[in-house]
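Extended Data, record Metal-dependent hydrolase
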Amino acid sequence: MKVTYYGHSCFAVNVGGKDVLFDPFITPNDLAKHINVADVKADYIFVSHAHFDHMNDGINIALRTGAKVVANWEIYNWFGKNGITNAQPMNPGGKWEFDFGKVKCVPAHHSSSFPDGSYGGVASGFVFHTAEGSFYYTGDAALSLEMQLIKRLGKLDFLVAPIGDLLTMGPDDAIELAKWLEVKEVLGVHYDTFGFIQINHEEVKKQFADAGLNLRLLPIGATENF
């Protein structure tokens, strides 16, 4: 399974011949200025919650590519009102079998509102099980005991978790979650974009290594096999 990182919490997974994009936030990100958003491929766009730094480029990418947008009911409706007809609602607790594999939508303890301040529905995470591998993207979640239930859905190959702290879980909690789920590979997201979530890369990588985990901090635009 190939994973491409576009900065902040935006990444894409190529699986089953499909390009699955998560939380598209590229053009306003100074760290991703070298990324041409017009080159970003997508057959599906999964949106974890309504904050601007997770869906800013969603409309233009969806219109250009025709990708199906998958998100909670409130975000699904918002995209519909903005001209996106190829969309599917998916609330926490729900699951669906797509042409690339199965996805379970799970709660993420985090706030969610649209840029105008209106209610953005419940923040979500997504658990993917495919023939090429399985992973859990937490969204902007805080650590919670109910995350231990994720293991009941099946074995995971890697975890995608925020590590910037302050607005989400930080390295300590991401390490704890990886241990709960018995996952050794972690893709770090939601860090460095803003001054208050900057991290010391070497220190955080050592923190994960000391816990027996491999933290991957991909350069923006880089693709790696997971």
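Summary. Residues 171-181 form the longest helix (11 residues).
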